[in-house]
Specification:
The structure holds 2 protein chains of 2 kinds. By secondary structure, chain A is an all-beta fold. Helix content of chain A is 0%, strand content 53%. Chain B is mostly beta strands. Classes of the chains: A mainly beta, B mainly beta. Chains A and B meet through strand 5, strand 9 and strand 10 of A and strand 5, strand 6 and strand 11 of B.
């Protein structure tokens, strides 16, 4: 158990809908990262938050957004969903000291039908 | 930019065989290096790490040595078990600047047969 929790574990929804994925980091970690894992694209970095502020952006679509709240949990919002958004979405958190290793949650499997 | 290249799988071995999964990297600065493992249906787990040249990371019988001269961080295990069947990811973290995101390789699927 990494200490990072994600809900829900599975999500099935229709095209055009909007969903919210939730992540709670390990106790004491201020950084939260979101990743998308699909068979064709592999593991893709989406976005990083540090103590409530956006720190880095990766291959995140404009239809996707995220935020980190004062209690440090984070939410990833996916809107206008397309079939191609079906994937595993992982959250990770890291400590504030080097080497900044990341600890991953169990993931949310999103299926868009 | 930073990049990680690891050997393409899948790799299929018999139990008790020797394992090597090659990983090389390109990075500016002085990255930290990691191996992660993903078992079927699970998230990524940190397997081992190394933060500077000649460091050896080890865990659960796996080892990898940070080789700056060859920009490599190959994963090895002397005797694999069926339970080691998983996808293995090599990754680096650039310690410079404020962007600490990991750069991952594409992953190598390992299957160990009894």
């Amino acid at each position: 158990d990494s200490g990072v929790t994600q809900t829900p574990k599975h999500l099935i929804t229709a095209t055009g809908q909007r969903v919210t994925l939730r992540c709670s980091p390990r106790s004491g970690d201020l950084s939260v990262y979101w990743y998308q894992q699909s068979l064709d694209q592999g593991l893709q970095f989406l976005i990083q938050y540090y103590n409530g502020e956006e720190r880095a952006k990766g291959n995140i679509l404009e239809r996707f957004s995220a935020q980190q709240f004062p209690d440090l949990h984070s939410e990833l919002n996916l809107s206008s969903l397309e079939l191609g958004d079906s994937a595993l979405y992982f959250c990770a958190s890291s400590p504030t000291a080097p080497p900044y290793e990341q600890y991953f949650g169990p993931g949310t499997r999103l299926t868009v039908t | 930019g930073n990049s990680v290249t690891q050997m393409e799988g899948p790799v299929t071995l018999s139990e008790e065989a020797f394992l090597t999964i090659n990983c090389t990297y390109t990075a500016t600065g002085y990255p930290s290096l990691f191996w992660y493992v993903q078992y079927p249906g699970e998230g990524l787990q940190l397997l081992l790490k190394a933060t500077k040249a000649d460091d050896k990371g080890s865990n659960k019988g796996f080892e990898a040595t940070y080789r700056k001269e060859t920009t490599s961080f190959h994963l090895e295990k002397g005797s694999v078990q069926v339970s080691d069947s998983a996808v293995y990811f090599c990754a680096l973290s650039d310690r410079r600047g404020s962007n600490y995101k990991l750069t991952f390789g594409k992953g190598t699927l390992l299957t160990v047969n009894p």
